[in-house]
Amino acid sequence: MSVGIPSAVLAAGWIPFVIVIVLILVFSGVYVLYYTSRKDREWSSVISAVISMSVALMTMALIPVDVFLVSFMKTSNGTFKDWAQNNDTRQSLEQSVLVGYYTMYGLITFCLFMLLPFMYFYYEEREEEATCKTRFCGALKYSVAFFVMMFVLLLIGALVHTKQVANQNNSTSEIEKLAGLFDMESNWVENSLSLVMSVISLLGLLIVVIYTAYGMASLPIELIKGHRNVRLERGDIQNRQEETRQKIKAIRDKYGRGKKMSNRDASTIATLEESEALMERQERHLGARDTCCQRCLIVLRPFAIVFGILLILVAILVFLSLLLTNIDKTLANGLGPKSGYMLKKRTLPNVVDIILVFCQQAFPLDYVLFGLLTFYLVFSSMAGIKNIGIWFFCLKMYKMRPHRTRPQGVLMMCMILMLALLGINIILYELTPQYTSFGNQMFWGVTGPNSTSLEKCTFDMQAQVLKDECIQSRMSMLLSRFFYKMWFFGAAYYWATWLFLLFILVGFVVAICKKSKSAIDGEVEADDIDDSSDEELLQH
Questions:
Q1: Who wins on pLDDT, 538 or 377?
Q2: Is the pLDDT of residue 522 over 70?
Q3: For 31-59, what is each residue's pLDDT tens digit?
Q4: 427 three-state secondary structure
């Protein structure tokens, strides 16, 4: 790094990032262990899941550091600070952030296409007589398809002919003039990685549309509704148990001694006995919940209701801010589909964007708020995954249950979460265009023959002024570069955000219409293979 960069600047930017990395590792470890089955736990799968989830969260944590560093180069009066006057110094700092992004993107690609698929099949190969060598070879055989997919995407990114940057003097459109001034040149390695990230980010947006949108709606509604009353639910199950026993007795009474039972009645009795066994397990778990300590938790219900209402307000705020930004892009302030609907200048009041830009005056307040916003979307995704489960087309593969999820389910959950986090990365860029592009940077703009005024850096400026006076964040630069070269992805991201908004509304309708969850939701299911771990769960 350049000697001209003060150590205080580097410390202010990177020390909070290191602290966040530690918190991310702790959070990822606790979350993965919380869902992993104690009976089937294998530490290689747990560690792989924790690493993969942490890498994706670290990529998100890099965004506010990026924004802080480019904003911190300028003073509040629009001039560059003494240490940032040298263009080489600025480029050195920008390059360090860019290396960080590419490192994270490379790790995400490795985890999604190599580590997680391999560990999934490695666990699938577990048998009593299987050795590490046979499991390794078996997992490698089934993982080849993912390796080939990654190689093909990288090869296409390296060889495909993308749009070249136009000469600024010959440019006619606004986006071409901007592209000629920003760092739009890239090598084949960057192009390959950019294509891979763009493809999986598009998949991630589909995950966000389904899981995150529903989680944003279901999470606060469930907090407000609460669970069913334990005693009432237990009494209802006992009544149904008695009715089931009476039905079984009535069918058996139809047949005297030595009289053969019909196949239909035998099948009916088998079904009723399975239902009775399930209700016995449910009643046993509800009995364990009907304790003095559990009854005392009722005093916390008002806090849950208040927290649920606050989450609804946050969801409304995010919804309206994203809606207004999309409307702004649809109107004359967008640069059109050829730029990925890049916003020239915010004209409609995006509250989330305004708050983050304003809070930059008291760093790390914006870092904290951005982190809270990110984790809100992450927790919404987790809530969506927990409620919907993991599906493969029309086949439900896994349901996320605390301490009862098999390692394959946890690995697939981490893969979905990694994709969702990449989609959330796009949503945050769409949600906070000013903050994630320029932060609170200002410059002196010419307003008349002999007058100037202090203005915010936006894309709605003279191109040469934008190049000389404003520094674009590396995240924004990477997206702008790829949107210009392969505009299809930017347009697809834009229209996916409209789907996201629609699914939020649908999610609220579904969540409101659904009944309150059982007090033992996720503990006892009809498709459980066995109940050998019931006693262990009851003890915890």
A1: 377
A2: no
A3: 999 988 888 888 888 999 999 999 999 99
A4: helix
In this structure, the strands spanning 451-456 and 390-392 are: unpaired
**Between residues 260 and 113, the one the model is more confident about:** 113
Q: Count the alpha carbons within 13 Å of 272 in the hemisphere toward its beta carbon.
A: 19
CB proximity list for 211: less than 8 A, separation 6 or greater: 381, 384, 385, 388, 416, 420
Q: Name the phi and psi angles at 267, rounded to 5.
A: -65, -40
Residue 113: CA atoms inside 13 Å, Cβ hemisphere, count? 22
Query: pLDDT tens-digit profile of 175-217?
Result: 555 555 555 566 677 778 888 888 898 999 999 999 999 999 9
284 burial type by CB count under 10 A (0-12 exposed, 13-18 middle, 19+ buried) = middle
Q: Is the peptide bond before 349 cis (omega within 30 degrees of 0)?
A: no
Reported residue count of the chain is: 540
Handedness of CA 69, 195, 197, 430 (dihedral sign): positive
For 520, residues 6+ apart whose C-beta sits below 8 A from its C-beta are 282, 285, 286, 289
Would you give the DSSP letter of residue 486?
S
Give the up-direction half-sphere exposure of residue 277: CA atoms within 13 A in the CB hemisphere.
13
